[in-house]
Every structure is written in structure tokens, then in C-alpha cells.
Amino acid sequence: xxxxxxxxxxxxxxxxxxxxxxxxxxxxxxxxxxxxxxxxxxxxxxxxxxxxxxxxxxxxxxxxxxxxxxxxxxxxxxxxxxxxxxxxxxxxxxxxxxxxxxxxxxxxxxxxxxxxxxxxxxxxxxxxxxxxxxxxxxxxxxxxxxxxxxxxxxxxxxxxxxxxxxxxxxxxxxxxxxxxxxxxxxxxxxxxxxxxxxxxxxxxxxxxxxxxxxxxxxxxxxxxxxxxxxxxxxxxxxxxxxxxxxxxxxxxxxxxxxxxxxxxxxxxxxxxxxxxxxxxxxxxxxxx
Length: 288
Known about the structure:
Blueprint: H1 3-13, H2 20-35, H3 39-45, H4 52-66, H5 71-75, E1 77-80, E2 83-86, H6 96-112, E3 120-124, H7 130-138, E4 143-148, H8 151-163, E5 169-172, E6 184-189, E7 194-195, H9 204-207, E8 216-217, H10 224-236, E9 237-246, H11 252-261, E10 264-271, E11 277-284
Parallel strand pairs: 3-4, 3-6, 4-5, 6-9, 7-8
Antiparallel strand pairs: 1-2, 9-11, 10-11
């Protein structure tokens, strides 16, 4: 089978679940993984015949995709903030809006020059480690810690730190119970924030394959992790340290009010590239 024929086969097989452009993008990612081809390679070689081994692997990928499994889990890897990351069913697939959060942390922290010494950062609910690893890669002198309640997530995050050749301190703990005497200049988190009532609106490939532990909170207490992390940040942030959150787009006002109630200052609610309320940055007020 020629590469262009396989592309058409992918497109037809995935047409019920994906639009044409998305199916094309998935196919290019698949051949990038199997053949190490980029888009230009495909254009130049699309009339070439695939060998039987390559065809077998790519057809198996298509079969898994047809079951609803996300491509990143099928391939076991993704790219986040220009860096490679291994993935598994115990961690969320990193999203583009989280890349925006990382960029905001890097920009803000570089401008702030929070301390004269090496920065101390902690990522809470690290999952794949995408935030912590990206921050450490861009701030190599920083001391970066990463916390998650899931042992499986810590294992994957640790492998991603090794893959990207960065040194990170990993902590397996529930942030609602964790305490430390260590101080940080930056606390950042993308905690669970999707309410159960929003579950019905979610796509099946997310519901059926991504870890619910990292996604959902109750309708009655949607900000439970924000409150716990704010309390943790208040006691562990250095003077005028910064707290960053990725948030539920429907709960921007409520999250800002929570930060105000916790006595944080300079609170900024920021929209993502899609115009949704998606991030908050605030500061621990200096103790006078």
C-alpha cells in the first residue's frame, strides 16, 4: 500500500469521530512516530510503498484509534512546550492551554526576579510532569519539586524528567494533607476542576480513557483543591511569592473571590487563546 492510500484509509476510518483536518493531523503524527516522517517527507514520499512491518504497525494504530483511544495514549508519547513526554493511562494528556500557563510562569518569574538566589518552584498535581519538567528545562538553576497523589503518575513524571535530563524532587502525597517547612518562590498547579455536571458535555475519548482522579471534582465543592493549594501556598511561599493556577473556565469569578478571601493580592484572571478564563496569578502579600 502506498503512503497516500493509507492516508485516505485513515481519513475514511476516522471520519465518524474526527473532522478531515484533525484526521489528517492524526495520520501525520502516526507516521511521524513510526517512520520519523515530517509533513514535507510525506509530500515527497507519499507515492512510495510501505513495507509489511510499517503497514502492520500503522494499521494497529488505526485499530486502537477506532476504539476511541486518544492518539497520545496509542503512541505512548506527546510533545509539550517543545519537549518529548511519555504518557500512560494514569496521567492526563497535556493540553495547549497548559503550555500557555507554563509560558506565563516563565515570563512572570523572569520579570519578577523573585529572589536573588536560585528560584524554588513546586508543581502540585504534576501528572506527566509536563509543567515541572518544562519549568526546570527553561530555568535550569531553579530548584523544582513536583507533587502528585498517584504513585503511577510519579513514576511517569520521573521517567519524563530522565528523558529530558532534568533533576526534579518528586513527592507522592495528597496536597490536602501534605505539609512541609520548605519555602517556595512559585507554586503552580493544574488541579482537578471539572464538575460532575459538566461530565455529560465531555467527549467519549476523554471520559473513557483519561484518569478521572485528575479530572473531576464534586458539584458541591468544585474548588476544593484550589482552597487546599491556596492554604499550602500561604504557608510555604516566600515573601511576595507567586501562585499560579489553571482553572475551570466557568469558575473564574469564584476562584478569584476565593483567592481574595485567602488574602492573596495582585490577582490577575487571564484568558487563554480561545478567549476562555483559564489562568490565575496572584501574590502572597508581604508580611509587614
